[in-house]
Amino acid sequence: MFRRIRSYCLFGIKAVPVSVEVDASQGLPGFTLVGLPDNAVRESRERVISAIRSIDKVVTGFRTTVNLSPADLRKEGSALDLPLAIGLLVATNEIEVPDLDSLVFVGELSLDGLLKPVRGVLSMAMSLSEKSRNVLVIPRANEQEASLVEGLRYMCADSLGECVGMLESGVLRCVKVAEGLKSCRQSALRVADVPDFKNVVGMECVKRALEVAAAGAHNFLLVGSPGAGKTLCAKCLPGILPEMTDVEILETTRIHSCARTAGDSDAFKPVMVRPFRTPHHSASMVSLVGGGTRLKPGEASLAHNGVLFLDELPEFNRSVLEALREPMEEGAISVSRASGTVTWPARFMMGAAMNPCPCGYAMDPKRACTCLPEARKRYQEKISGPLLDRIDIQVSVPPVDSSQFASRSLAESSAEIRKRVCMARDIQRKRFAGSRFKTNAEMSSDFTKECCRLSRETEKFAVNAADRMGLSARGYYRLLKVGRTIADLRKSDSVEIADLSEALRYRAFRS
Ligand SMILES: [Zn+2]
């Protein structure tokens, strides 16, 4: 008997509808699987047959053909286990399922019939909810992801046995309707342990620079001796960035859902706080920008709507850093494969930290630098001009004054700083209404000129400064953009000399 079961396959972060067609007939017993399956899918037969045996049903003894359609799409992973099992059970008349056409199945099976979570369920749920009143049948460990998509009708089970039981007793009784993000908002998920600026005493100039960076979504670079607190300061950043909107939460969570390890039963949490990703400097191209045989998103995509922080910037492989230029310009990464091109969103604020020289003490007043001038030069040259060109704010981090170690006083809290950042972002939202930009950092040069409205005197100051420091045209506009953000932070319409001279301080490197 022929039966068709609906399911989904993941391609990048897109969920593509797939049908599992099962035909079981009398004849010489055998099993054929066609339709571009990868190894994990080809092996699913063993898992599925064993799982079905665990619920005391028998589907062997037939001549069985399984086709995965569309046939030209490469099917990957283990999410097709459950639809295949259900397909075999109905095609051999072991179970009877009413309304089979309105059900969409995904899930991995273990040999003893347990249902294990798969990756990308949020993408599948989003794709399904757009269309119809279908019901998504998923492993219980994926329930939290499905519940994020408001209005989605879904059903979850811990094992094949439980799933079959529900199907036989009538699906409608077991269907749940997802509440959407409302359910998470009230819970404590939002309060993540982001370090707070109130515990960072001193370093006022660095904090101010990060406030400006956060307000205009500028990329930043911190240069300072080892142990000066560069990383600590940067880690506080998510606490002063505006809260994520519902759309941003879904966008980012969706990428994280596709990146999770299939079969990992740890509870999956929606990403409610802006991500702060810190890839190690030994990171490969694939782990940073995504790809690989499983086509998983990389760190740059996982940092979508948040911060990608590269500590020890010169230690990164240069070609890996160059690959980041595409997402920094486009806000997305494309990876080409024989099977097609996959695009992942990757709009992040890039942060980086580095020592001033290989030994690290070139800027330290108390310790002597032991590096040869050439070594220092070579070290700094590891970062290419074009990359440096995209980093608007570059500050040096002075070593902490030892008198401040004993200080008990608290500094201004992240919540206070965030208020100013959000206010500056509001001004930008109004400014860019109807344009393709969202923040000052994204402005084109024409737009920058138009938005900055310099007085004659201020313009003279800017041109002189650019001349004196040998700024490129791009460098000049970068100066104006940062100046625009500083003026936004004090709610001023016009950019003044004071704003530009503060912006001039944010260039520890010149380019
Ligand atoms: Zn040195």
CATH class of the largest domain: Alpha Beta
What is the radius of gyration?
28 Å
Number of helices: 21
> What overall form do the CA principal axes indicate?
elongated
Briefly note the CATH topology name of the largest domain: Rossmann fold
CATH architecture level-2 label of the largest domain: 3-Layer(aba) Sandwich
Q: Which small compounds were modeled alongside the protein?
A: zinc ion
How big a fraction of the residues is strand? 15-25%
Q: Please identify the structural class as seen in this structure.
A: alpha/beta
Distance between the termini: 71 Å
Superfamily at the CATH H level of the largest domain?
P-loop containing nucleotide triphosphate hydrolases
Strand count: 17
Mean pLDDT: 87
**Percent range of helical residues:** 25-40%
Strand order of the largest sheet: 12-13-16-11-17
Number of domains: 3
Which parts are unreliable, with pLDDT below 50 for 5 consecutive residues or more?
Answer: none
Question: What's this model, at a glance?
Answer:
The protein is an alpha/beta fold and 511 residues long. It has helices at residues 39-42, 44-54, 81-91, 121-129, 143-146, 160-169, 182-186, 204-216, 230-235, 246-259, 285-289, 299-302, 318-323, 325-330, 373-381, 385-389, 414-431, 445-452, 456-469, 473-489, 497-505, and strands spanning 2-11, 14-25, 30-34, 63-69, 103-105, 108-109, 115-116, 135-139, 153-157, 176-177, 220-224, 276-277, 307-310, 332-337, 340-345, 349-354, 393-397.
